[in-house]
Amino acid sequence: MSSATSAQLFSEPENDHQVMASWERFLNGDEGGADALRRLIDDSWRRCQGASVDPAIYQAPPPIKENSLHSLQTECSELLTASTPVMAAARDFLAETGTVMVLTDQSGTILNLEGDMSTRGAAEDVHLLSGANWSELACGTNAIGTALAVGHAVQIHSAEHYCAGIKRWSCAATVVRDPYDKSILGVVDVSALTESYNRLSLALVLATAGRIENRLARRTTDGVIVFDRRGRAIKSNGRSSTIIADLGIDAAVDGPEGLSSISLRWNKRKDSPVDLPDWIRREWVEPVIENGEHIGSVLTLPNRRGSMLAGSSRGSLSAASGDAADQRGFEKIIGKSDVLMQAVGRAQQLAKSRVPVLLLGETGVGKDVFARCIHESGALEGAPFVALNCGGFSRELLSSELFGYAEGAFTGARQGGAIGKIEAASGGSLFLDEIGEMPLDLQPHFLRVLEEGEVYRIGENKPRKVNFRLIAATNRDLRKEIQSGGFRMDLFYRVAVTSINIPSLRARSDDIALLGEHFLTQLSQRHGMPLRTLSPAVLTVLQQHAWPGNIREFRNVMESMLLTSGNTVLDVDDLPPHVLSPLPAASRLPAPSISPSGSVAAGPVADSAPSLTSLENAEREVIVTAIIKHGGNMTAAAREAGIAKSTLYVKLKRFGIDEQLKRSGLDGLTRGRQDTAV
User: Fold this and answer.
1) What sign results for the dihedral spanned by CA atoms 494, 500, 505, 506?
2) Which residue has the higher pLDDT, 292 or 417?
3) Is the N or the C terminus of the chain less surrounded, counting Cβ atoms within 10 Å?
4) H or E element, residue 273
5) Are 566 and 381 in contact (CB under 8 A)?
6) Assign residue 274 a region: left if phi > 0, alpha if psi is -120 to 50, beta otherwise?
7) Other CB atoms closer than 10 Å to residue 654's CB: what's the count?
8) pTM, whole model, 2 decimals?
9) DSSP run (H or E) holding 129
10) Residue 294, burial from CB neighbour count under 10 angstroms (0-12, 13-18, 19+)
């Protein structure tokens, strides 16, 4: 990357005073700029002035109403579906950093936010909220609006904003493009108050947008066949014939004659397909309704080759070599350490049955990859694998995503209704990540599905039969959640019939070299960059790091090094700051042991603060263990320790843990002064 290009991409906080002076002169009609003012910013200011944007405004326009937002989110459902797991992964790393991640549509209207709840108050003050529009016309120069205006990544810091009320923010954003026609679908943005400026936030949004586009690309390779009102196939896309051949069906749809061999019959009274061929699943068929009249239907044929891509965008443990699309089951898992092999062996045994499995482990260990491996090893080839993150939606959206809904069930509901994830998983596996986040009032409804094998769509009175294997995952102690009233005991015993404890990365440091080689190979190909290798010195540092974010953190450290270093061999100097400050002895605990029941136990804390009583030492041990377990997320750590968050901070100082965090680098992870990653 040339210095000229870098100067245009990145903000320079040290130039803030000169930029502010340039802004004041600009508003007073002085055309002369300053060396500190980037051309990107100068061009944006001029666009804003030409559009008569008021430089005195202090917030975005008010958000659109809730029903309008729901309709917009429905229109953007494909983008939201692709981005939800990626942004949910960001939640764990952005917590306590003073940073939020934002997803918008192509107009700059915010669809979803994740990140540090402590920043939400300041975000609300400027209307950085779902439903608010952040285009340049609405808010002047800002990362979201300017990225949309120029069509590429931008970083906007403090005084570079055009409007006075937004100058206390620092933001980085890039566009998300349709992988088919390259049109702009929306924007991914990372925003924080000025003091939390981080040069690497630009790499974070680039990586996040890339993962969303990759997920979209897998979806666009599905086959689609359109039928008229009489059930005759009239049009198909180019993938349909290949997918039908993959299913072993003797039919071709490349021309009119091939299409005529496929037809659908509809029960007009019930508005549902009947007498479907064995190779067509009911959930693949959606009616097309216009003005209450059934005018046709669409058959979507899932691309099974694409759906078997190794892992997902977060915590991937995909194999380091070979075609991932050709790998099924546990071949995708990288590593040879004893603790990992024990978990893999148990998972292989359980994959042979269809009993529910509960995956236990810290955030970022790859529970989603284990879930897919269990599915692919135990299910028939082609059986659906449907994943849903229970912590990635509001209560209302989770309900509709899980159970589906009938037409007219609520304002903004899609014509013809929508199938839920439970129905979509019938015949295969349903993976519910973060099941401990499922709202308490939804739990009895889901329990009824498990007990009776039936699901009711929202707004319908007739049940639909379902048959799926449940795989759930959590990093919470569900028994403690039961005691606190946050999780139902009867649901716990249905979900946790069997369990698997997935080890943390620090418990299998022998796998670091293999994982490093894998991720650098994968990421070099994704970003179109030369292959990089790790030096022996940097491998030593990586093996000694505590990895509170586990595989997910490791992957993003690899991506950060790849994107920010020009060296062929990556060395210690290329590491993000928080990795260069390993945990002191008192914090290097053995990995928490999670029993099949979900209870957590940790080894003793070494080198306790000298002036503490034995009771205080025990309390200190509990707090340090909770902080490490939750990757520096103080809210989760306080909940784990059973104390208020304010009390936690008091005890951090009393027990000397705050200084320990500063030395270890976890302080940067929790307060946003160091690198953050998805």
Assistant:
1) positive
2) 417
3) N
4) strand 272-274
5) no
6) beta
7) 15
8) 0.47
9) none
10) middle
Give dist(CA 231, CA 275) in Å, integer: 12
Say yes or no to pLDDT of 421 above 70.
yes
* Structure tokens belonging to residue 199: 């040069």
What one-character DSSP code corresponds to residue 324?
A: G
What is d(CA 209, CA 283) in angstroms, rounded to the nearest whole number? 29
Neighbours of 291 (CB within 10 A): 6
The pLDDT tens digits of the residues spanning 243-262 come to: 777 666 655 444 444 566 67
Question: Is the pLDDT assigned to residue 609 strictly greater than 60?
Answer: no
Residue written as token pair 């039969």 = 465
Which has the closest alpha carbon to 59: 116, 142, 3? Answer: 142
What residues form DSSP beta bridges with 392? none
Going by C-alpha positions, the residue among 512, 502, 507 that lies closest to residue 554 is 512
Q: Which two tokens stand for residue 606?
A: 């070494």
Reading the block at residue 644, the tokens are: 């208020």
Query: What DSSP designation does 393 have?
Result: S
CA distance 457 to 413: 12
Token pair recorded at residue 281: 């699943």
Alpha carbon distance 261, 576 (integer Å): 59
- Token pair recorded at residue 306: 């694409």
- Tell me how far apart the alpha carbons of residues 471 and 493 are, in angstroms, rounded to a whole number: 13
Tokens read off for 653: 């100082």
Query: Which whole-number Å values give the CA distances from 212 to 35, 78, 460, in the listed order?
Result: 36, 10, 33
Per residue in 30-71, pLDDT (tens digit) is 765 555 688 899 999 999 999 999 999 999 999 998 888 888
CA distance 565 to 200: 12
